[in-house]
Design goal:
Layout (H helix, E strand, L loop, with lengths): L5 E10 L2 E11 L3 E6 L6 H8 L7 E6 L10 H4 E4 L11 H12 L3 H10 L15 H13 L5 E5 L7 H16 L3 E6 L2 H4 L5 E6 L2 E7 H7 L3 E5 L3 H10 L3 E5 L2 E5 L3 H10 L6 E5 L3 H13 L2
Parallel strand pairs: 3-7, 3-8, 5-6, 6-7
Antiparallel strand pairs: 1-2, 1-4, 8-9, 10-12, 10-13, 11-12
Helix pairs in contact: 3-4, 4-5
Length: 299
């Protein structure tokens, strides 16, 4: 599938004295899942609303391919989006909700039933949305986004209200979309919610860009750590201090921050220190995420 790139260029939105989005610039490429991350109130939803033509920017522009969303002949066939899990008429059934949108994107009633089945709501097609759980409404929002089988998918906090099985399901679906060559942008206020499914990350705080890279590159910025059990923890602590690492007691051992397991093992061997256990600790991306967003808040 040929999908357009999303380009956010100097995007700014002022609400009175509050600058919700401040000169924001980044791109979202096809064939990848991009996580759009930031704490609550960072400006993520406002940015997405400007991308979708729902809110007018104070400055800058948001492009879908080479033009703004509204400039496409049938924008709903280009971008499928789900922003509000609560913005459904409670008296309509799930099927009726999709049938309202179907003519706007040129699809049939049959397609409405197909996407309900695809998101696991075929059993609730004739149930009123007012009786849907939050997780079911999330799935209905996704079904609405998928009606026209668009090349671009934009989802705002899609895992809210989903049970663990549903979270695994949405991760697999996002991966499938990217593998098909679609452009996928997913917002979240927690990195751990999307870490297992994203390829790229864009992190904002207070409306400003804090970081944009591949997830792999972000990992290189995180502090490595290792868990070590040694018969002489005091000597290991001293060795860590000599190397500029920190060593913190944890259970029967120490967590050494600032070094990989291989580096700790090599240093202990060179110093003649015996180790009983040496385990790599996974990089704490969530801590790095909070550091990046907190750094902006403290400015």
């Amino acid at each position: 599938m040929s999908a357009p790139t999303l380009a956010i260029d100097g995007l700014t939105k002022q609400f009175g004295a509050v600058r919700a989005v401040d000169d924001l610039t980044f791109t979202v490429r096809p064939g990848a899942v991009t996580g759009f991350l930031g704490p609550n109130g960072a400006g993520k939803t406002t940015t997405l609303r400007m991308l979708l033509g729902l809110t007018r920017p104070s400055a800058g522009r948001a492009l879908v391919g080479e033009r703004e969303y509204a400039a496409h002949a049938q924008p709903g066939r280009v971008v499928g989006a789900a922003l509000e899990a609560s913005s459904f008429h409670p008296g309509r059934t799930g099927l009726a909700h999709l049938e309202v949108f179907a003519p706007q994107v040129g699809v049939s009633r049959t397609r409405c039933r197909q996407v309900l089945e695809a998101v696991g709501l075929d059993h609730a097609a004739k149930q009123r949305v007012g009786r849907y759980s939050l997780g079911m409404r999330q799935r209905l929002g996704l079904a609405t986004a998928l009606l026209a089988d668009p090349p671009v998918i934009v989802l705002d906090e899609p895992t809210n209200g989903l049970d663990p099985e549903g979270i695994v399901w949405i991760r697999r679906l996002l991966r499938q979309f990217a593998d098909e060559g679609r452009t996928v942008l997913v917002s979240s206020h927690l990195l751990r919610e999307v870490e297992a499914s994203v390829d790229e990350v864009v992190i904002i705080a207070q409306g400003r860009l804090r970081h944009a890279s591949s997830l792999a590159e972000l990992r290189t910025r995180a502090t490595p750590a290792a868990y070590v059990v040694a018969p002489r923890p005091d000597a290991l602590t001293a060795l860590a201090a000599e190397r500029g690492w920190s060593a913190t007691p944890d259970g029967d051992g120490l967590v050494v921050d600032g070094a990989t397991a291989a580096e700790v093992g090599a240093a202990a061997h060179a110093a003649g220190l015996e180790l009983h256990e040496l385990v790599r600790r996974d990089v704490d991306l969530e801590a790095l995420f909070f550091e990046l967003t907190r750094a902006e808040a403290d400015r």
